[in-house]
Predict the structure.
Amino acid sequence: MDKKHLTTAEAAKLLGISRVAVFKKIKAGKIKAKKLGRNFVIEKKELGGILEETLTEKKKSQIAEAVKKTVKEYGETLKLLGKE
């Protein structure tokens, strides 16, 4: 297989889920896969942004702003939840 495709085991490892969960997502149509003999192959592009190896500066900035906003608005609640 070329680098554009993943096996179900590779996809499971990258997504942090089991192979069975990958098969369930394929069956439910949440992950598009092609049958190749007895196996499925998944195009990397089908997994969307999950497989991005690096974050762009814009995305890093958006994440930082979201974290600041969350801490500002829910800081006290987060502290209380952390104590439980």
Remarks:
- The chain has a mean pLDDT of 85.
